[in-house]
Each structure stands twice: as structure tokens, then as C-alpha cells.
Amino acid sequence: MQIKNIQGYEILDSRGNPTTACVVELIDGTKARAYVPSGASTGSHEAVELRDGDKHRYNGLGVLNAVSNINTEIKDNLIGMDAYYQKEIDHRLINLDGTNNKARLGANAILAVSLAVARASAMSQNKELYQYIQEILQLDATLDKSFPQIGFNVLNGGKHADSGLDVQEYMIMPLKNNIEENVRIGSEIYHTLKKILSKNGQVVSVGDEGGFAPRLDSNEEGLSLLVQAISEAGYVPGIDCALALDVAATEFFDSNSQNYTFDKKIYSGAELTSVYQNWLQKYPIVSIEDPFAEDDYDNWKNFQQLMDNKIRIVGDDLLVTNTERIKEAIDQKLCNSVLIKPNQIGTLTETLEAINLAHNNNFSTMISHRSGDTIDTFIADLAVGVSAGYIKSGAPARAERVSKYNRLLEIYYS
Asked: How many angstroms separate the CA atoms of 384 and 397, rounded?
């Protein structure tokens, strides 16, 4: 089905900053849109998000240049192509850009088009998006839908809030086999946590991802609060609901001293490892994301060896949804799980290649939103379509977070 028209435009993300949007029209009249999210805590190896830099407009964060690239060069080169051939479309976009990190056209321009093409193709064939993704992966679409476990980010720290916490995300992860039950449990614990914080005299304003941002005395106090909330909501910690962390350690790593500033103290990688080991003995933590800085390979490797796959050690800034970096992590045994963010790499095809590589090497995958997100629900279909083990989209609050969870429920009941 030929592409008839492509139109890019500028919208706002959940932080009120500009981001790219794109509508793709096919010759049968099908129209589909895609919106691109934006991260605050970003890995240095991510594909490049093109910003205008015009300080008189959106404080330099405008994306008119990226939008212009969609409406000129990208449009001119994709009109008339068959939208059903996703890989060919994406390779045309990659080659058109010509850089290794999509810096010329912008990953935010390229991804908007890539995702909109996929959604239009699914709609044109009267298929659900997750089913179309299964077809691209050549999976058996007759298999039962596989739903991911959810990591709800209910306490925000790091670059996602002004709480003063070093750990960026404290997540609760309900452990039931039913997606509807897990969404309910996550919501109930979230509201219980709010009551606990209010009772303790803490503010209950939220950070970028909908989680609360209390001023706590230490990073460990956040873990204690979550265990308390799980229990007071009527569930058993470690049985009904586990904990997961996104430490985002690159954000508090000093590349000169090779040390970490954590809880207002200086830690070596080995000392930080001991902190994690202590927490793992005391709390039902099943997953730790980015426990060390993105290029601190020695400590990643040591931690993975020490844990011996007892928990998920998830690479985000370390891997940035990039197959070359994932291959390196596999070879060097740096971790055992990959965080998947389509806007880190820039096309759906490359995202699926990263997922395939992970799954073929017994790495689990967690599909992820970004802190500056939109109401686009693509990642929910992606998680089901690739049978990802996990997904995170923030707290069960704010439309741009809840939209993903509601889409999972839509798929469940369809």
C-alpha cells in the first residue's frame, strides 16, 4: 500500500516541551499518527534528538528543524513507497540520514515517521498494531497474547524530580499472572503510599513520571516506604508485589575520580555494590537498572558475576537499544536484561532487531516510556507484540502514563 502523504508537526510532551508528531496517509485513505517522547536522563550513546537551539522560542528546545526534515527530505524520499515493507522504509530513513547516530535529520524526526508508517500499515490491513508487529517479527500471531509485568514508578528521584533522592525510579512490580489484577494492585498500592506520605507530613506532589517526590533522609528510606505501602494495601511483599529500581548511576558518577556520590557520600564501585547487596538481603528487589555508569564496565561485570542471574540487571544508558552495545554486553557478560526505548535508536526496525538479539541470547526485555512522554500508546502494543517480559510507563497517574496501561487492558479484553 503506497504512501500518499507525510506531514510532520510540533506538539508538546508531558513536560510542556516541544516534540515531533507525524501523520502518514496511504493511498487507500488510511491516516495514522505517531508522537515521539523525550528523555531527561539520557545516555551519551543514544541517537540524537534534533533541537533548534533558538533561545527566543521554547528556550531553544523547539523541533521545527526536525519537523522540516520530515516535511521535505523524508517526505520526498518516501512518497510512493509501499508502507507494508517496514524494513525497507526504515533502511531508507537510516541511509537518508547517513550518520551513525541520526544527528543530521534527527532521531525524533525519523522515529515519528517510522512509527506512523507501522500504525498506518496495521490500520490499512484492519489489524491491531501488536498483531502487525508480530507479523513483522514473523511470530505466530495465533499464539495467546503475552502480557508484560508492569513496573510502576511510584517514587521519583534523580533527574525526574526535586526530591533529592539519587535513585531515579522506585518501582512496585505486581506479580500476578493477570494484567487486569496487576494494574489494580499497582493503583491500590500507589494510593496507599500517598496516604502514608500524607500521614508522615510529606508533600504528595509528583515528579515527571507521576510518582511522588518526598524529601527523604536516605535512598534506602524509599525502599522501606514501598514495603510499608505494599503491606498496608493488603499484599505480601515479595509474594504479591516485588520492588524494582532504576538507579541511573551515570547521573551521580564522577568520570575523573571514577567514584559515585550517593547519599551525600563518596562511594567506589565496589562500595556501591555492597550497598546493593545489603538492599537485596533486606528488600524484595527483583530488578536493578543502571546500577553503574554507562561505561563503567568493570563494575557491571563484577555485579553480574556476583548476582549470578538471581535478579535482573537491566542495561539502559549502558545499552541504549543499540545492537552493537547489546552484543558487547552479551560478550562481556555485563548484564542480563535490556531496556528498550525506540527513541534511543530511532526506527521500529532497529528496535525490533535489538529485542530479537536480546531474546535470542536469553536476555529479558523491558519496554520503556520516557520521562517527557505523550499519550501515544505504541509501546504497549510493542510489549505485547514482541512478548516482552516487562514494561514500565511510570506511576498509575497522569494521562501520558495511564494511557499505556489502559491500552494493555484494551488488548487484554479484545
From this structure: 21
The CATH 3.20.20.120 portion of the chain extends over 149-413
3-126, which class in CATH?
A: alpha beta
With b for 16 or more beta-carbon neighbours within 10 A and e for fewer, the 115-148 pattern comes to bbbbbbbbbbeeebbbbbbbbbbeeebeeebebb
Gyration radius (Cα) of the chain, Å: 21
- Which position has the grid cell 502494543? 381
Active site residue 209: yes
**Rounded to the nearest 5 degrees, what angle is found at the Cα of 114, between the Cα atoms of 109 and 116?**
100
- Residues 356, 46: Cα–Cα separation, whole Å: 19
| Residue from 279, 43, 311 nearest 167 by CA | 279
- How far apart (Å, rounded) are the C-alpha atoms in residues 131 and 381? 8
Annotated catalytic residue within 75, 102, 188, 341: 341
Distances (CA, A) of 28 to 78, 133, 302, 346, 364: 16, 21, 55, 27, 38
Q: What is the pTM of this model?
A: 0.96
Query: Which listed residue (209, 251, 289, 400) is catalytic?
Result: 209
What is the location of CATH 3.30.390.10 in the chain? 3-126
341 is catalytic: yes
What distance lies between CA 209 and its chain's CA centroid? Answer: 11
Name the CATH superfamily housing domain 149-413. Answer: Enolase-like C-terminal domain (3.20.20.120)
Q: What digits encode the pLDDT tens for the residues 90-127?
A: 999 999 999 999 999 999 999 999 999 999 999 999 99
